[in-house]
Amino acid sequence: MPLYNRLKEHRARLGVNQQQMGALVGTSRQTISQIERGDYSPSVALALKLARACGVRVLSLIHI
């Protein structure tokens, strides 16, 4: 079952680009891009950092 994410939507709401989001959570722009495209599944730790940076729960970032 595929896992879809809403990181791009939340990032746009915050008004930050991929580079800035990567800096907020301690990863690269490329990793943010891969997550948004669905080419990379973040670790639990990274998912928590992303959710915290977006001000949402982890489950708000992903859906099946």
Mind sketching the topology for me?
Blueprint: E1 4-5, H1 7-14, H2 18-25, H3 29-37, H4 44-54, H5 58-61, E2 62-63
Antiparallel strand pairs: 1-2
Account of the 3D structure:
This protein has helices at residues 7-14, 18-25, 29-37, 44-54, 58-61; strands at residues 4-5, 62-63. With 64 residues, the protein is mainly α. A two-stranded antiparallel ribbon has the order 1-2. The chain is globular and about 25 Å long.
Overall shape: it is globular
Number of helices: 5
| Strand content range | 5-15%
The order of strands across the largest sheet is 1-2
Give the biggest sheet: 2 strands, antiparallel
Structural class: mainly alpha
Count of distinct strands: 2
Give the CA-CA distance, first to last residue: 7 Å
Compressed to H and E, one letter per element, the order equals: EHHHHHE
Averaged pLDDT, please? 91
Query: What share of residues is helical?
Result: 55-70%
Extract low-pLDDT stretches.
Answer: none
Radius of gyration, rounded? 10 Å
Index terms:
64 residues, mainly alpha, two-stranded antiparallel ribbon, 5 helices, 2 strands
Short characterization:
The chain has five helices and two strands. The model has no long low-confidence stretch (mean pLDDT 91).
